[in-house]
Amino acid sequence: MEIQTLLLFSATAIPLICTPGPDILFISSQGLSGGISAAWKANVGVILGYIAHAILAALGLAAVVAASPLLFNTIKWIGVAYVAYLAIKMILSALKAGELKLQTVSSTAVITKGFLTSFLNPKGLLLYFAILPNFLHTSENVAIESLILSATFITSCIVIYGIVGVIFARMYRNSSYSDKKRRISEGVAGGMLTLAAVGLANS
């Protein structure tokens, strides 16, 4: 695969990655409410969701989703409901005063939430169906090309989402934490997830 093709694909994919959506807002909210560790765990979960999309696309299931409005909308609204659930849960926690406790959130729980957030967003799956094929050359090994492009996309996501997570985690780390600030950060994070749910619903 030519380097020009990779650069053009990256130039197409990176603006999509940077556009605020459920995935980037989830990672941001985790960084804001749980610090750098939570942000990276969320990033790992989101990336696992993208890897699952890549596998499904390779199996041809992306085409099935794209061709079935009912299936597409079912996946979409399950994703909306899940992100909305996370938002409501965080907002309710923010509204509840109590003793400040340093809680260690299960790595598996955060990674699972990140995975479901990205996996239940059908737009991620359709990226492999609608955009990636435009950069494949049928005269070459399509499977290898597809893997290279998928790896390029996923690597870009790791870097960009990682930077975003660190930025929001710094806000968490640079403040002397108190129950009041805990409630504020969780409220803001819940609001960000609400925006993610609304954006997903309107997509």
UniProtKB/TrEMBL annotation:
Please list every transmembrane segment annotated in the UniProt record, as residue ranges.
Answer: 47-71, 77-95, 115-136, 148-172
> How does the protein associate with the membrane?
Multi-pass membrane protein
Q: What GO MF annotations does this protein's record show?
A: amino acid transmembrane transporter activity
GO cellular component annotations, sorted alphabetically?
A: plasma membrane
Question: What does the UniProt entry say about where the protein is found?
Answer: Cell membrane
Q: Which UniProt keywords apply?
A: Amino-acid transport, Cell membrane, Membrane, Transmembrane, Transmembrane helix, Transport
**Pfam families linked to this entry:** LysE
The record's principal subcellular location, in a coarse class, is membrane
User: Would you tell me the protein name for this molecule?
Assistant: LysE-type transporter
Species the sequence originates in: Providencia sneebia DSM 19967
The organism's lineage is:
Bacteria, Pseudomonadati, Pseudomonadota, Gammaproteobacteria, Enterobacterales
